[in-house]
Amino acid sequence: MAGIGLLGVAGAMSGCADALLSRPDPPDLYTLTPKSTFPDNLPTVDWQLLVEEPEASAGLDTNRIAVLEGFTRLQYFAGVAWTDRAPLMVQTLLIESFSNSDRIVSVGREGFGLRADYTLQLELREFQAEAQASGPPHAHAAMTARLVKLPERVIIANQSFDASNPAVSENFNDIILAFDEALGDVMRDIVAWTLQTGQADAASVS
User: Most exposed of 40, 75, 81, 115 (fewest Cβ within 10 Å)?
Assistant: First the structure.
């Protein structure tokens, strides 16, 4: 958790209501960390993987940090932002997570020069803090993943991944820590599922 990047000095935020107040200053920029620990039984694969940028709704396809109040009201924390649009940031973190696993020969994004054997298509379904009736908000991350075999573009499998993690306090740094844990759980599971599913397919035709 110590690796969470804060670009600029974030002022203390006493809660969601305070964070939503307008500020004229440039936003403080935040990023999250890739996963670096995985199950010991993951296969080592010799195929290459292309990770596509996740699709996302307009409310999440932004560098603003979203907060959901109730079931329908999506707002944004004021004075803070992600270092990039959320889908692009998640794509970068997921590629780094695959690399950190040390179980795949090559992984990258489109235009990276890969001769990929599989492509991972993603949809970012949830990526927001969710206000609670009482207590700190929960960070919620959810993605769907589809593994596609190339060059045939045959769908091998698809799976949904979902994680929610409560912040330990309403301080904004704790909310970011909750985001890091929730997204980290989702990325770890996607890496494991992709390697296991792709290797099972590769073995079936070898």
Answer: 40
